[in-house]
Amino acid sequence: MKRAFRQLALCLCALVASAALIPLHAQQAGESAPPKFRSSLDVVTIQASVRDTRGRTVSGLRPDDFEVRDNGELRRVVSLRSEQYAPVSVAVLVDVSGSMRLAGSREMARLAYELLLAQLQNRRDEVALFSFDSSLDVRQEFTTHVTSLSGALNDLTAFGTTALYDAAAASAKRVAARSGTNKAVIILTDGIDTSSKLTAPEVSGIASSIDVPVFVIATVSSTDQRLALERMRRSAQSDEADLRDLADWTGGQLLFASTIDETVSATSKLISELRQQYVLAIEAANAHEWRRLDVRVKRRSATVKARSGYYGG
Q1: Closest Cα to residue 198, out of 169, 241, 233?
Q2: In the chain, how many domains are there?
Q3: What pLDDT, in 10s, does the model give residues 53-84?
Q4: pTM above the 0.70 mark?
Q5: Are residues 166 and 205 located together in one domain of the fold?
Q6: Do 200 and 211 share a structural domain?
Q7: Do 100 and 52 have their domain in common?
Q8: Do 164 and 104 belong to one domain?
């Protein structure tokens, strides 16, 4: 793990304290009561995706199939939810900075957005639409009227600098307040941040502490995709962090959309994964500090994607 992430606790006290206290059961007026973990203990919830070596979703797991370590200490799973094809709550975050004008990124982002909407169920799932350049703009607050958002990016223009990490942090806090259990931030971007005050590790800490996975769909050309992968390879050998780290550390994923086929595959895989997640609960630590989480299953053929930690106390 990169040094920046290992030292994340130093900045979380100032950056995450308020976000970490956002109630996971917060409701908006008129919403149905959310699923809750009832216990005499304070608990931490963890969204987890489990797949086999072929990338297929692993179903039917029980609490004793999971191994969760909190700062290296083994924790008992006090509750587990697994609802096949569960409703999802997603915030779609669209990059409208000037760099999106290049190499068809803006047009591919429009396509990815419409394909994402096509994967959602009207009046069952909920979605919000945000755009960002140097600041975050709310285009549509959360709604279950999914079909009404089709065409919302037809007037998309690209201008200004890119505060991608800042926008990701702000939208993650909004998603955290939703009542559903299967939640995520989905970012459509060319992957270039030029003006954020926050770094990738800091945003990862914010999103992880409130259990919101961040999925990034990079709408770039095939040439730019190769360049991006090379940059990530170099950053993996240094102390720098990038979009792939942001996605991985929050339990999300970085996907590329360089062609129509890639875009169709990425959007379908993303929503399918969200619908089939496990939601675990473990006893929370009382210490006011960043707590490192390691979630695994007791099967060598399975891999788990989950949040990397939480803010204790």
Answers
A1: 169
A2: 2
A3: 988 889 899 999 999 999 999 999 999 998 77
A4: yes
A5: yes
A6: yes
A7: no
A8: yes
